[in-house]
Write a structure and sequence with these properties.
29% helix, Urease, subunit C, domain 1, 19 strands, five-stranded parallel sheet, globular, 12 helices
């Protein structure tokens, strides 16, 4: 195993120091370290963070390898500073059995770029009718602990209660896609002034907020863990704030695009801005930013959703919802929060690792800690070119935008997956 000596690097914004990585861990820290035979990485001007962890990634394999594979998505993740990602269940076939989640898990191990932790479906085929094999997936080699029908809401309250009760046996968590389907039938974008002006069927904020309120009560009733995917409205923030004040075991995520973009983007009818849940208003964006800083919203999760060209470059009504996110998430978060490195580490590494039970991840670079870390150049600014992204798809809403920060290196268990901003393999 290669040893690395990172010199003159700032750990979470502190004074520069040296880091010696050997045998998969941070072996030593301090000024003026020497390590004969180690590969030296000049960390001058760079910030060292714990490797990022994404709780919401769509890798599309099996079934839609034309849009993404576990390998291409893993490479995009590593280039984005990630050392672990949680792969959503809406593949084809759906990840609702031990066999499918183990396939995804093994593909991640073979790629060797990030730890790929599969998320299992809550219901068979994401159909919302009967529970999937939750216990079998939990006992599989993949050791699934998060279950989600993301893309579909578990709308039946009895089924949601049963799922919350079931996962308590192995300290699992149900991650809900909060959308009351009877309120969003035919919806194309956020319901408001702009949807009315454009003549597009609106997606009301209350469709999200009502499900969150219901599920918070269910989780409180059964004493189980609940996670809310891609929170997008100010009203949802209010529900979460009240629930947390009562001690409900609820966590929540926000995506980078919901922290930056608004429903005004839809006026171009460019399908790259079509996403689920939809982009909301400037007031919602402001509320989400405040909630993230305060911890009412616990983490940033990418909802990386690659799509093949024919599924995205078409009329708005027929386009699939979703955006790329892995290679730009840190830049967007840095733009939103500023260089508050400890807060960024908390929202993008420590807390998501803790929620997912990924015990090797989310550790600050310190002696004895697993060497899962990323080096960031905060002074760099880069123009996003879709053709230069590692993802197999190109549906990024940030095309040709100039974003702050650049991932210089990423290390997974002490092995470099990215050096000098380029994937090692």
């Amino acid at each position: 195993m290669t040893a690395y000596l990172i010199t003159n690097v700032s750990v979470l914004g502190a004074a520069p120091t040296d880091l010696l990585i050997r045998d998969g861990v941070v072996a030593e820290t301090g000024a003026g370290l020497t390590a004969p035979g180690a590969v030296t990485v000049d960390g001058t001007g760079l910030v060292a963070l714990p490797g990022l962890v994404d709780l919401h990634t769509h890798l599309r394999e099996p079934g839609r390898e034309d849009a993404e594979t576990v390998e291409t998505g893993s490479r995009a993740a590593a280039l984005g500073g990630y050392t672990a990602v949680c792969a959503m269940a809406n593949t084809s076939p759906v990840a609702d059995t031990a066999g499918v989640v183990e396939q995804v898990w093994r593909l991640g191990r073979e790629a060797g770029l990030v730890d790929v932790q599969p998320i299992g479906a809550v219901t068979v085929g994401l159909a919302g009718e009967r529970l999937a094999e939750l216990g079998t997936m939990a006992d599989s080699a993949a050791r699934v602990r998060i279950f989600s029908d993301d893309g579909h809401c578990v709308a039946d309250p009895r089924l949601m209660r049963r799922a919350l009760e079931y996962v308590k046996a192995f300290d699992g968590i149900v991650a809900q896609h909060a959308e009351e389907p009877r309120l969003t039938e035919g919806a194309q974008m956020h319901e408001g002034e702009i949807s009315t002006r454009l003549g597009l069927t609106g997606w009301p904020a209350v469709a999200e907020e009502a499900i969150i309120a219901r599920d918070v009560l269910l989780a409180e009733h059964v004493g189980s863990r609940l996670h809310i995917c891609h929170v997008s409205t100010a009203g949802s923030v209010d529900v979460l704030r009240q629930a947390k004040a009562r001690g409900v075991q609820v966590t929540a995520e926000v995506t980078p695009h919901h922290l930056l973009l608004t429903d005004e983007k839809a006026v171009t009818y460019d399908p790259v801005y079509k996403v689920n849940p939809p982009l909301r208003t400037a007031a919602d964006v402001a509320a989400l930013r405040t909630a993230l800083a305060e911890g009412v919203v616990d983490i940033v999760a990418t909802d990386h959703a690659p799509h093949a060209v024919e599924d995205k470059e078409c009329e708005w009504a027929y386009a699939r919802p979703g955006m790329l996110g892995l290679e730009t998430a840190l830049s967007i978060t840095l733009d939103v929060l500023g260089p508050r490195w400890d807060l960024i580490a908390e929202r993008m590494s420590r807390t998501p690792a803790r929620i997912a039970g990924l015990t090797e991840h989310g550790h600050d670079p310190a002696p004895g800690a697993p060497a899962n870390l990323t080096l960031v150049d905060p002074a760099a600014r880069r123009v996003i070119e879709p053709t230069e992204l590692a993802s197999r798809s190109s549906n990024t809403p940030y095309a040709r935008m100039t974003l702050p920060g650049r991932i210089v290196a990423t290390f997974l268990r002490g092995e470099a997956t990215v050096l000098d901003g380029k994937a090692v393999k």
